[in-house]
Design a protein that fits this description.
It comes from Zancudomyces culisetae (Gut fungus). The chain is mostly helical. The chain has two helices and four strands. It has a domain of 81 residues.
Length: 195
Protein backbone atom coordinates (compact mmCIF):
# COMPACT_ATOMS: atom_id res chain seq x y z
CA UNK A 1 0.00 0.00 0.00
CA UNK A 2 2.81 2.33 0.93
CA UNK A 3 4.50 1.64 -2.44
CA UNK A 4 1.27 2.44 -4.34
CA UNK A 5 0.91 5.77 -2.55
CA UNK A 6 4.54 6.67 -3.26
CA UNK A 7 4.18 5.76 -6.94
CA UNK A 8 0.92 7.69 -7.15
CA UNK A 9 2.60 10.69 -5.48
CA UNK A 10 5.47 10.55 -7.95
CA UNK A 11 3.09 10.36 -10.90
CA UNK A 12 1.12 13.35 -9.58
CA UNK A 13 4.28 15.36 -8.93
CA UNK A 14 5.57 14.56 -12.42
CA UNK A 15 2.23 15.41 -14.05
CA UNK A 16 1.85 18.69 -12.18
CA UNK A 17 5.51 19.55 -12.75
CA UNK A 18 5.30 18.90 -16.47
CA UNK A 19 2.20 20.99 -17.06
CA UNK A 20 3.47 24.41 -17.91
CA UNK A 21 2.34 27.40 -19.89
CA UNK A 22 -0.52 29.75 -19.28
CA UNK A 23 -3.00 28.72 -16.63
CA UNK A 24 -5.89 31.12 -16.07
CA UNK A 25 -4.02 34.14 -17.40
CA UNK A 26 -0.73 33.33 -15.65
CA UNK A 27 2.41 32.80 -17.70
CA UNK A 28 4.81 30.30 -16.16
CA UNK A 29 8.47 30.08 -17.08
CA UNK A 30 9.32 26.97 -19.07
CA UNK A 31 12.55 25.30 -17.91
CA UNK A 32 15.34 25.90 -20.42
CA UNK A 33 13.32 28.36 -22.52
CA UNK A 34 14.44 31.88 -23.22
CA UNK A 35 12.30 34.25 -21.09
CA UNK A 36 11.64 36.25 -24.27
CA UNK A 37 9.81 33.20 -25.64
CA UNK A 38 7.48 32.82 -22.63
CA UNK A 39 4.45 33.95 -24.67
CA UNK A 40 5.18 31.25 -27.25
CA UNK A 41 4.73 28.58 -24.58
CA UNK A 42 1.16 29.65 -23.82
CA UNK A 43 -1.45 27.03 -24.66
CA UNK A 44 -4.13 27.98 -27.16
CA UNK A 45 -7.84 27.70 -26.28
CA UNK A 46 -7.68 23.95 -26.97
CA UNK A 47 -4.76 23.47 -24.56
CA UNK A 48 -2.28 23.00 -27.41
CA UNK A 49 1.28 24.25 -27.90
CA UNK A 50 2.31 25.30 -31.43
CA UNK A 51 5.77 24.17 -32.48
CA UNK A 52 7.88 27.19 -33.41
CA UNK A 53 8.18 25.99 -37.01
CA UNK A 54 4.35 25.98 -37.24
CA UNK A 55 4.21 22.40 -38.53
CA UNK A 56 2.49 20.81 -35.55
CA UNK A 57 0.36 21.39 -32.44
CA UNK A 58 0.75 19.20 -29.37
CA UNK A 59 -0.85 19.16 -25.90
CA UNK A 60 0.89 21.70 -23.64
CA UNK A 61 1.57 18.87 -21.15
CA UNK A 62 3.96 17.35 -23.70
CA UNK A 63 6.34 20.31 -23.41
CA UNK A 64 9.53 19.23 -21.58
CA UNK A 65 8.35 15.60 -21.35
CA UNK A 66 11.74 14.34 -22.60
CA UNK A 67 10.26 13.19 -25.93
CA UNK A 68 10.72 14.95 -29.27
CA UNK A 69 7.32 15.90 -30.63
CA UNK A 70 8.27 18.99 -32.67
CA UNK A 71 10.76 18.67 -35.53
CA UNK A 72 12.43 21.94 -34.50
CA UNK A 73 12.89 20.87 -30.86
CA UNK A 74 10.87 23.79 -29.50
CA UNK A 75 8.84 21.45 -27.27
CA UNK A 76 11.92 20.32 -25.33
CA UNK A 77 13.92 23.41 -24.31
CA UNK A 78 14.78 22.05 -20.87
CA UNK A 79 15.33 18.35 -21.41
CA UNK A 80 17.97 16.20 -23.03
CA UNK A 81 15.55 15.02 -25.73
CA UNK A 82 17.33 17.44 -28.03
CA UNK A 83 20.70 17.16 -26.36
CA UNK A 84 22.30 19.73 -28.58
CA UNK A 85 22.61 22.38 -25.88
CA UNK A 86 20.78 21.20 -22.77
CA UNK A 87 22.83 19.76 -19.91
CA UNK A 88 25.88 19.70 -22.15
CA UNK A 89 28.10 21.39 -19.56
CA UNK A 90 28.25 24.62 -21.56
CA UNK A 91 26.71 27.83 -20.25
CA UNK A 92 25.04 29.20 -23.38
CA UNK A 93 24.53 32.94 -23.75
CA UNK A 94 21.05 32.31 -25.21
CA UNK A 95 20.03 30.83 -21.86
CA UNK A 96 21.45 33.60 -19.72
CA UNK A 97 19.90 32.40 -16.46
CA UNK A 98 21.54 28.95 -16.72
CA UNK A 99 18.25 27.05 -16.74
CA UNK A 100 19.47 24.90 -19.65
CA UNK A 101 22.04 23.33 -17.28
CA UNK A 102 19.65 22.21 -14.56
CA UNK A 103 21.26 18.78 -14.03
CA UNK A 104 24.02 20.26 -11.88
CA UNK A 105 26.88 19.13 -14.15
CA UNK A 106 27.97 22.77 -14.19
CA UNK A 107 26.70 25.82 -12.36
CA UNK A 108 25.97 28.69 -14.73
CA UNK A 109 25.82 32.20 -13.36
CA UNK A 110 22.76 34.25 -14.11
CA UNK A 111 24.19 36.66 -16.69
CA UNK A 112 20.83 38.04 -17.84
CA UNK A 113 21.34 41.45 -16.21
CA UNK A 114 24.85 41.76 -17.66
CA UNK A 115 23.63 40.78 -21.13
CA UNK A 116 20.64 43.10 -20.84
CA UNK A 117 22.99 45.99 -19.98
CA UNK A 118 25.10 45.12 -23.02
CA UNK A 119 21.98 45.09 -25.20
CA UNK A 120 20.89 48.46 -23.78
CA UNK A 121 24.36 49.90 -24.49
CA UNK A 122 24.18 48.60 -28.07
CA UNK A 123 20.72 50.13 -28.47
CA UNK A 124 21.92 53.47 -27.06
CA UNK A 125 24.90 53.37 -29.43
CA UNK A 126 22.57 52.63 -32.32
CA UNK A 127 20.30 55.52 -31.34
CA UNK A 128 23.30 57.86 -31.07
CA UNK A 129 24.52 56.75 -34.50
CA UNK A 130 21.03 57.34 -35.90
CA UNK A 131 20.93 60.77 -34.24
CA UNK A 132 24.32 61.76 -35.72
CA UNK A 133 23.32 60.27 -39.06
CA UNK A 134 20.05 62.19 -38.93
CA UNK A 135 21.93 65.45 -38.30
CA UNK A 136 24.31 64.76 -41.20
CA UNK A 137 21.34 63.92 -43.41
CA UNK A 138 19.61 67.18 -42.41
CA UNK A 139 22.77 69.14 -43.31
CA UNK A 140 22.98 67.39 -46.67
CA UNK A 141 19.30 68.09 -47.35
CA UNK A 142 19.84 71.79 -46.52
CA UNK A 143 22.87 71.93 -48.83
CA UNK A 144 20.87 70.21 -51.55
CA UNK A 145 18.07 72.78 -51.20
CA UNK A 146 20.59 75.62 -51.59
CA UNK A 147 22.16 73.90 -54.61
CA UNK A 148 18.74 73.40 -56.18
CA UNK A 149 17.97 77.13 -55.80
CA UNK A 150 21.43 78.12 -57.12
CA UNK A 151 21.19 75.75 -60.08
CA UNK A 152 17.64 76.94 -60.73
CA UNK A 153 18.86 80.54 -60.96
CA UNK A 154 21.73 79.42 -63.20
CA UNK A 155 19.31 77.53 -65.47
CA UNK A 156 17.03 80.59 -65.70
CA UNK A 157 20.04 82.77 -66.60
CA UNK A 158 21.19 80.29 -69.26
CA UNK A 159 17.63 80.06 -70.60
CA UNK A 160 17.50 83.86 -70.93
CA UNK A 161 20.89 83.86 -72.71
CA UNK A 162 19.66 81.11 -75.02
CA UNK A 163 16.54 83.08 -75.92
CA UNK A 164 18.65 86.19 -76.57
CA UNK A 165 21.02 84.15 -78.77
CA UNK A 166 18.08 82.65 -80.69
CA UNK A 167 16.64 86.16 -81.21
CA UNK A 168 20.00 87.42 -82.53
CA UNK A 169 20.29 84.34 -84.74
CA UNK A 170 16.87 85.04 -86.27
CA UNK A 171 17.79 88.71 -86.82
CA UNK A 172 21.08 87.71 -88.45
CA UNK A 173 19.25 85.10 -90.54
CA UNK A 174 16.91 87.83 -91.85
CA UNK A 175 19.86 90.13 -92.59
CA UNK A 176 21.59 87.28 -94.43
CA UNK A 177 18.48 86.59 -96.49
CA UNK A 178 18.17 90.33 -97.35
CA UNK A 179 21.85 90.50 -98.33
CA UNK A 180 21.47 87.35 -100.45
CA UNK A 181 18.52 89.00 -102.23
CA UNK A 182 20.59 92.13 -102.89
CA UNK A 183 23.53 89.99 -104.04
CA UNK A 184 21.31 87.94 -106.36
CA UNK A 185 19.77 91.13 -107.75
CA UNK A 186 23.22 92.58 -108.48
CA UNK A 187 24.32 89.31 -110.13
CA UNK A 188 21.19 89.32 -112.30
CA UNK A 189 21.72 92.96 -113.27
CA UNK A 190 25.35 92.28 -114.20
CA UNK A 191 24.32 89.30 -116.29
CA UNK A 192 21.83 91.41 -118.19
CA UNK A 193 24.41 94.16 -118.80
CA UNK A 194 27.04 91.68 -119.87
CA UNK A 195 24.98 90.15 -122.60
Amino acid sequence: MRFKISCLSLVLVFAVGSITGKVEGEIKQIRGANPKDAERYVADKDGKFSCFDGKKKIPIAWVNDDYCDCEDGSDEPGTSAYARQVNDGVCEEECCDGSDEWSGLVRCENRCLELAKRDVEKELQKQETEKVGGAVKAQLVDKAKVLIVEKGIEVEKLEAEKQEAEKKFEENQKKKEELEKVENKIIEENKEKGR
